[in-house]
Design brief:
Two copies of one chain form a homodimer. Chain A contains 14 helices and 13 strands. With 375 residues, the first copy, chain A, is an alpha/beta fold. The first copy, chain A, folds into two domains: 105 residues, 2-Layer Sandwich (Alpha-Beta Plaits), CATH 3.30.70.150; 260 residues, TIM Barrel (Alpha-Beta Barrel). In chain A, a hairpin with a 2-residue loop joins strand 2 and strand 3.
Chain lengths: 375, 375
């Protein structure tokens, strides 16, 4: 296949309107000129998007399949997204539902470094769901946050994730905070190893700073002893994540946070499908773990939308299968149900409610483990 | 005022539901923990968002005003957006309508380098609307694109803007293309100056590459003789633009392109208002010119939405007033109406339809000027 394909939901009046709109998308995302002035030859034959088919989907909607050549993209992820849903993101009634990569895309955007199987090795946990406390709130000192890191790691957490709101504020500047927290988790891991525990906690530092400092901050985290980084592609750009994932010197797994991405999925009429954004695109951009809001929490995702995300994270390509990570106002009593729905290749986030345990937060980690194991 | 404020449209059942939702937004965008576990003192008093008031707006909607302290942000733009509409972007029925900065925000995010008045000086055009052809399509060689640059600049264009789809593709790699095009516009400007023309064309190079190369590519453009850069904040991040605008070594104006940003404005129930995204946030992030889709073109913005954008670009703060730039499927015959609506402090884009003129594209530039002057 010498072109990759994107399937769009298109709202239209009838078949011919839908076909015209699909042709409009193909123009919009590539040459952005009227069809009659597209230069013959290379631009028309290769660069211009091509409508492969347009079939009815439901009431007033059609599925339009548009293929693109890698020459319209080049080698950089921003332009891949520009072709997939750049200007077409501004058209009403156009939603990208799925992307079928070809060899060109897979070669240029190879995806995650670790993914599902890699995280099993890194944590040393051969089976079972991952217990992941979220360290917060912002405004706390680096010492307070490091203490939470220690307590949760010591109690058996698999991943100790910083809140995405921990950026580079004066209360706990990035470098100082990450150094303290990495040391705390390192200490807890040493004690776990001494006790014969074959598993370890991975500390994921939240990248907070300027967009052009992402690599420098990630390398600081790596050198300080962090085991992974958390990044917000909706604020730093998907390419920032991809660049880290493809950087030969950066060897840590990456967790993607959904902050600022809501409008891309909340409407059936625009943006991306849940699976495409939180699964396919996160995989293409090199995330190892994709955080998303669980159904029934503070956010309004449905069970179907959540299972679509999980399927897109763990199903066939692009790149390695990655770990879904549901969170957002979860509590201990919901974990067994979540485990039954999502299974063991999943990172279970628990944040604010853990703080109710105070210094006994380690007990909450034991209870999380028991809830997942008992499911 | 020691806090800055964001006004949200909140969909709710009644006043008390609206107040609860506003309190939820204040938590979500800052500490992201349940209210009852927010630590007393600094975190509760300073870091936590504060609901200032919640008043009815229309049927089923309320306006909630939430204030935030700069300490929740720090000095970097990604975290500013994270506080303004990070996790809350994923809540259904929450739309950010406006931002009232305080001195902290204005000091840390001072805005555009040039803006409305600066562009008058840079172009040498003391009055009148700006004529701005868009150079395209991608897939063309650097020579072909440079030829279009020359012809339009020679004919009197004020700004010669590259299409946002010109990235770093093999057909015309960024560095080669920009060098050619800058030279072409430079030659045209020399001829204009020889003929006694006090104005000049500004060539805006489209930044195409990786997110972490933005500064390097922008500096290449500057050194090659470009007069400005075009950047897509929806793909490279708003902070990439801000970093360029605040970079002491980078002295060119910046044009922001709306690609990939559609879902943030297309629904009344989520994202940002048109004015906030394409006006206020572009100003805060340092854009000198903000491109948006004109009403009645291929995109569905209304007249009211467009005038809201223009008011937010040119009205009171934050930072310098900037130039709005409507485009998207415009044609010569619509220019007089546009001029009457938007006035002279406006960059009028004309793209694909210019290609119909072929080698006589200079005639189209003359006609654009006549249409704007005659309005």
């Amino acid at each position: 296949m010498n072109r990759f394909e994107v399937t769009y939901r298109i709202f239209a009046d009838d078949q011919s309107d839908a076909e015209a709109r699909a042709a409009g998308i193909a123009l919009e995302n590539t040459v952005e000129i009227p069809r009659d002035v597209v230069p013959a030859g290379y631009v028309e034959d290769v660069v211009l998007g091509r409508v492969e088919d347009v079939v009815p989907e439901g009431e007033g909607t059609w599925l339009g399949r548009v293929s693109y050549h890698i020459d319209a993209v080049g080698r950089e992820l921003p332009q891949l997204l520009n072709v997939v849903l750049g200007n077409a993101s501004i058209l009403r009634g156009v939603k990208a539902l799925g992307l079928t990569p070809n060899a060109d895309v897979l070669e240029r955007f190879p995806g995650a470094q670790y993914g599902v199987s890699g995280l099993r090795e890194l944590t040393g946990r051969a089976s079972g769901g991952y217990v992941c406390p979220v360290i917060k709130p912002q405004g706390s000192s680096a010492e307070t946050l490091a203490r939470l890191c220690y307590l949760t790691a010591r109690a058996g957490a698999d991943i100790v994730k910083e809140d995405h709101g921990l950026a580079n504020q004066d209360a706990a500047p990035f470098r100082e905070r990450v150094t303290h927290c990495a040391e705390a988790v390192g200490g807890a891991n040493a004690e776990r190893a001494d006790g014969g525990d074959p598993t370890r906690a991975l500390y994921f530092a939240s990248i907070g700073g300027h967009g052009d400092q992402v690599r420098e901050l990630a390398m600081h985290a790596q050198e300080a002893g962090a085991h992974g980084v958390l990044l917000i592609p909706g604020l730093f750009g998907f390419d920032a994540m991809n660049r880290l994932a493809q950087d030969a010197d950066f060897t840590l797994p990456i967790m993607a946070h959904p902050s600022h991405l809501g409008p891309y999925v909340l409407s059936p009429e625009m943006g991306y499908s849940h699976g495409m954004l939180f699964g396919t695109l996160m995989r293409l951009a090199g995330a190892d773990i994709s955080v998303f809001p669980n159904h029934g929490g503070r956010f309004g995702f449905s069970v179907a939308e959540c299972t679509e995300i999980v399927a897109a994270c763990r199903g066939e390509g692009p790149g390695r299968a990655i770990l879904p990570s549901p969170g957002g106002g979860m509590s201990l009593d919901r974990l067994p149900d979540m485990m039954r729905l999502y299974g063991e290749d999943c990172v279970y986030l628990l944040g604010g409610s853990l703080l109710r345990y105070g210094d006994r937060i380690g007990d909450a980690i034991h209870e999380m483990r028991a809830a997942l194991n008992g499911a």
